[in-house]
Amino acid sequence: MSTTDQHSEPDVASMMRELDQSRAALAEARRLEEAFHTSSMDVALVISECFQALAEVRQGNLDAQVSEHVLTSPDELLANFGKLLNDTIKDLKVQMDLVKRQALAIQELSTPVLQIWNDVLALPVIGTVDTRRAAEIMERLLAEVVIRKSKFVILDITGVEIVDTKTADHFLKLIKAAALLGTKCILTGIRPAVAQTLVEIGVDLSSITTLRDLQAGLRECLQDMQKSRPKEPVAH
Amino acid sequence: MAEKSIDAKGLRCPQPVLKIAAKLPEMKAGDILIVEADCPTFEDDVRKWCDRMKKTLLAVNTVGSAKTVRIQF
Predict the structure, then answer these.
(1) Catalytic positions of B, written as ranges
(2) Does a structural domain hold residue A235?
(3) Using one digit for the tens of pLDDT, what is the confidence trace for B20-57?
(4) Per DSSP, what are the bridge partners of residue A122?
(5) ipTM of the shown complex
(6) Calpha distance A138→A176 (Å, rounded)
(7) Final residue of a domain: which of A66, A92, A110?
(8) Is residue A3 included in any domain, yes or no?
(9) Shortest Cα distance from B21 to chain A (angstroms)?
(10) Chain B contacts of A45, Cβ < 8 Å?
(11) pLDDT tens digit string along A103-120?
(12) A121 lies in which domain range?
């Protein structure tokens, strides 16, 4: 019985769905952050207009249509505005904490390390890879390789739209570091545009195995695993 | 014509703008308010605030990550 038969078929479709969900979560968090900024500025502008009205009351310039209460107790109004201001700032702090927690969650989601088969880890990379993120990815991946004693890592860059010399260098370092731990790294999901750029800027990826997609990467890992298995003695 | 100032460094949007709003009752026409803040959206927020409140943004100076604005009331 072959290795492939011993396990169920890899559910690449569900992994791609997870990737899509991560992308959607990222977009949603960004949208929420922008919406939060816009709405909090709107609140700040309304409060400013209240203070403006109060200033006009104090300077005696306000229109005669303003209610008697406003005209008779500006100090009380000022106190109320102060309370409103403090409450608003408290609410905003709570919302800022929420945004920070979301940012942390996004960071976790952006570098998921998935065990997709025995001894095979997959690292789907989404978005831009700068030095800081490359360090995070390297740290997480190497830790997982050690914990799970994985023999193969598939670095899937389908979600990376721009790969320049610096990004390629980050990937090469990552692959070399994994190799030092005895793990074979396969790079998959290079987009046509990315491939074109890499050729144009002269990045040399000939030292590493690159394949079309995650599925091809997994197939390669399974074939390698099968080759390295000791052959069973033939029964006579 | 008085000149007043606010140190809003370390505060995140829209807290610096709220600090400016809180100064409104004590500012008179022609007074100048100098505000220093390091929130990334501070300059945009102040521009929006000045447009809405019909105040004049006289200057924006950047020193490192901090920005200092001069607003005329």
Answers:
(1) 13
(2) no
(3) 988 888 888 899 999 999 988 899 999 999 998 899 99
(4) A114, A154
(5) 0.84
(6) 11
(7) A110
(8) no
(9) 5
(10) 17, 48-49, 52-53
(11) 777 766 667 888 888 889
(12) 114-228
